[in-house]
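Students often ask why we bother predicting the structure of a whole assembly rather than each chain alone. The short answer is interfaces. A chain on its own may look different once its partners are present, and contacts between molecules only exist in the joint model. In this exercise we take four input lines together and write out one structure for the complete complex. Read the inputs first and try to guess which parts will touch.
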Amino acid sequence: MNFGVIGFGYWGPNVVRNLTSLDGSQVLAIAELSPTARKRAQKAYPGIHVTADVSDLMKSPDIDAIAVITPVWTHYELAKAAIENGKHVFVEKPFTSTTAQGEKLIELAQRKNLRIMVDHTFLFTGAVKKIASLLGEGTLGKLYYYDSTRVNLGLFQHDINVLWDLAPHDLSIMDYLINASPEAIVATGQKHLNCHEDIAFMTLYFPEKVIAHINVNWLSPVKVRTTLIGGEKRMLVWNDLEADEKVKIYDKGVNITNREGVYELLVSYRSGDMWAPQLEQVEALRQELSYFVDCIDNGKDPHNDGCAGLRVVRMLEAATDSLNKNGALVYL
Amino acid sequence: MNFGVIGFGYWGPNVVRNLTSLDGSQVLAIAELSPTARKRAQKAYPGIHVTADVSDLMKSPDIDAIAVITPVWTHYELAKAAIENGKHVFVEKPFTSTTAQGEKLIELAQRKNLRIMVDHTFLFTGAVKKIASLLGEGTLGKLYYYDSTRVNLGLFQHDINVLWDLAPHDLSIMDYLINASPEAIVATGQKHLNCHEDIAFMTLYFPEKVIAHINVNWLSPVKVRTTLIGGEKRMLVWNDLEADEKVKIYDKGVNITNREGVYELLVSYRSGDMWAPQLEQVEALRQELSYFVDCIDNGKDPHNDGCAGLRVVRMLEAATDSLNKNGALVYL
Amino acid sequence: MNFGVIGFGYWGPNVVRNLTSLDGSQVLAIAELSPTARKRAQKAYPGIHVTADVSDLMKSPDIDAIAVITPVWTHYELAKAAIENGKHVFVEKPFTSTTAQGEKLIELAQRKNLRIMVDHTFLFTGAVKKIASLLGEGTLGKLYYYDSTRVNLGLFQHDINVLWDLAPHDLSIMDYLINASPEAIVATGQKHLNCHEDIAFMTLYFPEKVIAHINVNWLSPVKVRTTLIGGEKRMLVWNDLEADEKVKIYDKGVNITNREGVYELLVSYRSGDMWAPQLEQVEALRQELSYFVDCIDNGKDPHNDGCAGLRVVRMLEAATDSLNKNGALVYL
Amino acid sequence: MNFGVIGFGYWGPNVVRNLTSLDGSQVLAIAELSPTARKRAQKAYPGIHVTADVSDLMKSPDIDAIAVITPVWTHYELAKAAIENGKHVFVEKPFTSTTAQGEKLIELAQRKNLRIMVDHTFLFTGAVKKIASLLGEGTLGKLYYYDSTRVNLGLFQHDINVLWDLAPHDLSIMDYLINASPEAIVATGQKHLNCHEDIAFMTLYFPEKVIAHINVNWLSPVKVRTTLIGGEKRMLVWNDLEADEKVKIYDKGVNITNREGVYELLVSYRSGDMWAPQLEQVEALRQELSYFVDCIDNGKDPHNDGCAGLRVVRMLEAATDSLNKNGALVYL
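Now the answer. The structure tokens for the assembled complex follow.
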């Protein structure tokens, strides 16, 4: 599978490194606007065509798929051009700036029978895969809540706010784990430095009393990547900054009884062992790209396809709407 | 100063222990409905009159002040009776169930020239005092945000939800530190087990772009007591579960420049030393009660008086209102 | 069971509190030399006879057992007098200043058919009990090593060095867990402030290649209470400062193979899950004293009897010998 | 400066990467016995001559310096050949297998006026540089102790024991920081799996009551890299596994007074703020190699020269001697 990669800034080099080292794929061309980044790319990969002109990639008959690793506002035009030129596309998260754009890309790809994969890298980590299997096996019991804190100092994005920058991680993970769409969203936040929110909080109401919450912040002195997931039977803590033991499952919970003759509910606590399962140690991006190559080869849609990307954009749009109304409930 | 104490459940014994060991105060009587708790009280304090009847305390001519350490729905009636009987009152947080009740108590105490103190214990900890002095001296610069997480497994309260149970701590601390009243509040949450929310999130919009956020949860497998406070010049983390180094100040921040001819803001990060100041090690409740005795002696109102208690109740009422409307913005 | 308690300094009040609250025991008298401590004792326990004269306790016909909670250099004389007066004794750790003293006390008690218990409190904690059962069930496999770090800032003892102050904890735990006596001991250390070592390190060679190591330090800026225990099949970390999850068991180990035709051993690592079992939450001292009362009642020797105390003193003596010779190997 | 690099296993690639990216140096040839590693080297560096024959490097007139990144038992022969062929040498730690070998290399290099640098990488980390400057400025006051724990699961070395594998880090750091040579060494340890110790403890007696201790272990379930350094005025903790705040300085200490008329010393504790200075964030190896190029250019000996390497080997030899005698005191 021959790839063209657009964008060689922060994340692009990781995509190129993995695509070149995988057995089933190679990179034929890299397009990048910054001369410095082009120089870096050319030095690291003397055998790859490095260019400032994306049309070199779009028009190359040898290129099967294009990876769009650029700012979100450019995704639509670049992915559209790629699809129109018959290329499969791998698009950085968030998928597009609007749901309308996402819908058009999906429709276009369907018509051309091409694959879209949105780079929801976290879905391919050992931690998320383990959590998904725990939820799937009913280890936690009925899900109660999902609460993620994702804060650190910067980097400020010039074109998007902290929600669009950091929350897509959590939204794509939730979308994958919870297996349902939120019914309504409330988002609050504040702009301290410029015209974009640098701190924001998001509540998502899912069916069956599942509630999710995301805390994102570009102005935190410490880096935090912690998610609490509570269920009827067990609860877990995923701390992505731990070197080992990223996921800890607690055999803790609440028992509710309603004894005859007693009006009020009796709540009692159950406390037990904790365990931290060993997690798969592979590089998530490598697995994701290998899966993409496999999906293209076999003509099947990945689970993180355009529709998954679109669901995340829809949540971001609703959150933006709520944020602009200072926390109004926005139904999806 | 002679005290009567109503309520000898979880917190009451601490109040009694401190009042009896302080030089300026003693406890003459304890009123408690539970026979078991009365027995415990009598065994621990053979010299104190222990009774099931609060009117023993209300009517005792020897008692100067009454501490009301009971569930919130009983505060108004008990405090009202105490004040009407000419006693100063120390009331457990939250002050009252409604702002109307709080206002009546304040008015009544003013008319009788009696003191009300609301038990905002955290204001008397070494950590909060240090943070207050750091903010006062401008160490953090202009305040940007206050973000508190206060989660653990239980205890479920039968009469109030998690917001009324846990958030008063943060609201009273904020009220003390920020020195301004919020303009509007958004609260979201969910009830999983019974008719009270067991998980809730609250955003408070203060003047001048200060934003505060509180995350409270009765269903967390791990206990967290962490507050991030960000300012223009420095940021701090207060982790109340650390044995030492509860407060860490980071010489980190963001510099914004708007170079001539450049449309967009340029944001750069500043990173420097961290330091953890030594904190006062005294028992907060002891300091608070000593301060109350002193306020009564000198006829002055404490900073955590009925008005402070009322401000917290007002925020809780607004939050409840917002929560019932699934996150609608409620102005104060 | 009627107790007399000698010593009401740091630890004595805990012994008195537990003996008075247990069903099977009460405290009739407390002997203490310091007038301030006597005053404190009398205020807290108006019903107990508080005296400066230990012979009040020794000669009281009503007292069945005496707890000696005093500096180690006084243990022998006090315990001897107690036993000679027909009392059972509970002695603070370390048992005695010399093995000779310990042997005499054991012999004397045997002759009088009285019980000795040495206060090895840690053996009654949930953590040590759990570790003992894990080792007993073979969960760790053959034991490889036991490595404990027990450091903090002070308190300096005026009569003993850091080894005699802190190492008895580890030595009594090892004695209980390893179930074998060390063959030889090496100890090193240094005196920085006065005539007693304030930092010391101890290596114990047990049979079958089991090695133990203890790091004790009165001059550490941070408090550490961590023990690593490695076995052929699994390894564990016991961090006594953790609020929860004090004991973590790692399904990690080393596999050794010696393939035919290959001279050198092939070592491969096995890595798996970690789990933290729930621990019993009772107060260790309470359990220990309850067990003592039970042993007296039933005329049986506790596992932490004089012989256990003597084994610890023997190790301390050997360590002192080695320390004085700058680390010479001392056989036991 | 043209380099040849011998060894492209675990550490060699890092040396090559840095030498090729530095302005003042390039790599002309890599020698490596393993065909797989040679293939990897050739793929990553198509422009560099990769060979199985070290004599290609030794005899190349274009090569100015040779980096010996191979097992310790090969260092002497390789470094000797390099020096004899007029090349400067950069040798992996530990310098040599014996002090005799080290002495010969130093003498040889002196005669040929060539530079030797021993790869004591840690001396170039931000943490060690900061600690050195704190000690130099007297921030800690007179040094009391240095206590390092360096444990993890494997990797087992087939040719050396855990002391020779892990302790060189600590010994080179001590040598750099303490600025004095130990007078005597005690080492203990145990072999569980094969003929090499897998766990070992080392005490070093320095002049003026400075004591150092090293705990190294290949069989620990958790990775620890923590060093406590205690001084008369302040103490510090260096935790190399922390992402930020690797070095924390505690304004804690002990005050000793000897009041007139009082025989015993009075020890009181002082407790104050903690601070974590910001550390330099550069890659240590890069700095070290850049410093080596600079030393060669300017004909000056680096501080981590052959003599520094020899001092570390001398300590390892003494420790081995003590270890073989089960902890006998060995004078240096």
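Check your guess against this: The domain at 2-114 of chain C is CATH 3.40.50.720 (Rossmann fold).
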